[in-house]
Amino acid sequence: MEKVVIRKLRIEDADAVRRIQFEITKEEDDIDYQESLRAVASGNQHMGIAAEIDGKVVGYMIGYMLFSGFGLSKSAWITNFGVDPMYMGQGIGKSLAKRVLEEYEERGVTHIYTAVRWDSVDLLSFFRTIGFDRSTLINLCKIAEKR
Asked: 32 lies in which domain range?
């Protein structure tokens, strides 16, 4: 395997993140990745890590911190994650997660959450291998009414 460089995501990585997301889902989305990465670049509550091989972004993980809410103290959420399918199975996801978890630990975060669709068996399996388990939270959703 080529040398993987783990680094902070930059705003100019937006197209690579979009490409990876499309390669995984095979669906176009309307997410403003540049805006997401601007929040990451601010360095405040948001965090984004990239995996790069030979100058090409092949994976990413994005999250943010919360300082309180609904009975939670300082916590973090992993909100978006992807590895280019051509590079899956090479430990890139685990390398990204290791860095993100280390950075959150350095910031004093003890509880890290994510939400995964119940039928995303591969994603559920991945998060279990890096130590995630069911939480005491129940995800709720409200779908906006069409106008």
From this structure: 4-114
